[in-house]
């Protein structure tokens, strides 16, 4: 049973670690413009330990920042915002959207990049969702099965290029049009937030509720079109691009510099960076 709110770190709520403050920057579907990475490495060199750390949710962390009473100095906050990776101060802790890294590049049944972008916009625009637990996670599998083994709070699996089945905690929801999926996922998050309440011991995850939120239809069976789990994306040349391994998830300045020739990168939840094929060749 939970006895306190979650303590997931963010820019405005860092984690106090032995080596200084730790902050987390949340990437929607792991998407990372190379210009933002370049700026983040500069920020890390000035304010942190010089490296960028990849997480299992395809997000980024900095370590070793100066501790000012459990907070970052204002100039460090401004520097982090200059990367373009902190689009909302009020909602920075709740932008947890994990997406199949290759979606839109190769394979899968649907390109879920627009869904992820719309979902992020809806979450950030709703004041009620600023209070979601920092551990609440959306997982969007584009039908290839690479994220089926991931626990989620609200998510979907594409069944075709127009239809998807909702994931609700550890269960399944309705089959819906992909065009409606971002709105449905945002509604599910609102329903959870209302059901969990505001007590310090309120649940962090949908699976911790006594039952699904009253406004959520759960308990469906998996659709017959559901893919089998495909496992992690292998490293090396893969359909649609290259998956670069980042040892121990530590993107040092040298490793980061090697990626700078590519316009856009996708951080993966397996301590790697996917480089879409269209970005592989130098100009």
From TrEMBL:
<protein>
    <submittedName>
        <fullName>Nitrite reductase</fullName>
    </submittedName>
</protein>
<feature type="region of interest" description="Disordered">
    <location>
        <begin position="209"/>
        <end position="231"/>
    </location>
</feature>
<dbReference type="InterPro" id="IPR005117">
    <property type="entry name" value="NiRdtase/SiRdtase_haem-b_fer"/>
</dbReference>
<dbReference type="InterPro" id="IPR036136">
    <property type="entry name" value="Nit/Sulf_reduc_fer-like_dom_sf"/>
</dbReference>
<feature type="domain" description="Nitrite/Sulfite reductase ferredoxin-like">
    <location>
        <begin position="19"/>
        <end position="66"/>
    </location>
</feature>
<keyword id="KW-0408">Iron</keyword>
<dbReference type="InterPro" id="IPR051329">
    <property type="entry name" value="NIR_SIR_4Fe-4S"/>
</dbReference>
<dbReference type="GO" id="GO:0046872">
    <property type="term" value="F:metal ion binding"/>
</dbReference>
<dbReference type="InterPro" id="IPR045854">
    <property type="entry name" value="NO2/SO3_Rdtase_4Fe4S_sf"/>
</dbReference>
<keyword id="KW-0004">4Fe-4S</keyword>
<keyword id="KW-0349">Heme</keyword>
<dbReference type="Pfam" id="PF03460">
    <property type="entry name" value="NIR_SIR_ferr"/>
</dbReference>
<keyword id="KW-0479">Metal-binding</keyword>
<dbReference type="GO" id="GO:0016491">
    <property type="term" value="F:oxidoreductase activity"/>
</dbReference>
<keyword id="KW-0411">Iron-sulfur</keyword>
<keyword id="KW-0560">Oxidoreductase</keyword>
<dbReference type="GO" id="GO:0051539">
    <property type="term" value="F:4 iron, 4 sulfur cluster binding"/>
</dbReference>
């Amino acid at each position: 049973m939970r006895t306190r709110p979650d303590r997931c770190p963010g820019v405005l709520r860092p984690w106090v670690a032995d080596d200084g403050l730790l902050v987390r920057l949340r990437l929607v579907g792991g998407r990372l413009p190379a210009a933002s990475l370049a700026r983040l490495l500069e920020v890390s060199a000035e304010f942190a330990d010089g490296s960028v750390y990849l997480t299992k949710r395809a997000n980024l962390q900095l370590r070793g920042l100066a501790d000012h009473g459990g907070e970052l100095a204002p100039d460090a906050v401004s520097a982090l915002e200059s990367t373009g990776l902190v689009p909302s101060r009020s909602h920075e802790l709740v932008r947890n959207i994990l997406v199949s890294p290759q979606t839109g590049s190769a394979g899968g049944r649907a390109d879920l990049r627009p869904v992820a972008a719309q979902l992020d916009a809806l979450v950030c625009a709703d004041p009620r969702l600023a209070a979601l637990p920092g551990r609440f996670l959306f997982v969007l599998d584009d039908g290839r099965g690479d994220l089926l083994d991931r626990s989620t709070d609200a998510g979907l699996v594409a069944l075709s290029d127009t239809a998807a089945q909702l994931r609700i905690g550890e269960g399944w929801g309705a089959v819906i049009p992909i065009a409606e999926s971002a709105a449905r996922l945002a509604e599910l998050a609102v329903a959870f937030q209302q059901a969990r309440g505001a007590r310090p011991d309120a649940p962090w995850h949908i699976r911790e509720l006594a039952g699904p939120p009253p406004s959520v239809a759960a308990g469906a069976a998996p659709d017959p079109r559901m893919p089998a789990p495909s496992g992690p994306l292998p490293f090396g040349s893969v359909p649609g691009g290259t998956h670069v391994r980042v040892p121990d998830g530590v993107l040092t300045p040298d490793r980061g510099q090697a990626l700078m020739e590519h316009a856009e990168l996708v951080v993966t939840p397996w301590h790697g960076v996917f480089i879409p094929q269209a970005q592989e060749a130098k100009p």
